[in-house]
Amino acid sequence: MINKKVLLVSLTGTLFCGSALAGEYIKMWPYKDPNWDPEFNLSVTAGQFDPSPNGMQNETSLGLQLSLNCPWFGPPVGALRQQFNLNKVDGDGYDLTTFEINPRWYAVDGNLRYGAGPGFGYMWIKPESSLLGDESSFTLQVSAAIEYRIDNISLSAGTRYQHTSNQDMWGSGDGMNNIITDIKIGFDF
Length: 189
Known about the structure:
Layout: H1 2-22, E1 27-28, E2 41-50, E3 59-69, E4 73-74, E5 79-91, E6 94-101, E7 104-109, E8 112-127, E9 135-150, E10 153-164, E11 178-188
């Protein structure tokens, strides 16, 4: 039951928080405008996965990010981007995968963008030991990043905190709350 509540709260917050940051006059359904451009971008990510809130050691995180301009809300200032992340961590004794949806509002200053936003997702953990079972959890996160664009290439650095709704993963009582700090290189298509 708690997972359904977490999902509902995170979905509602994701839809409304990004648009609230965007300003007073939100343009609804910008994709209907013939001049709207989704500006699709595919990025490769690499960074540090820090589960230290749980007393575990840092690990390397690798992933992919697909992002586009939000088709539902158009801010009068800046850019609202929908970002879909897939992260993989080969940890000490476990393999972890996350899928995240992170809408983010960006201030735009020429080729430089910086912004923040909420998110929600899902996490899967597979232990290397057969004594422990697979675990999974819905997640909530908040993130921030800075991005520099050169023609069709984007270079970015960011961080995000992720909270798991399953706080009893492997009997820990702490879940797998974590922080990822990463760099990205992406290409528009």
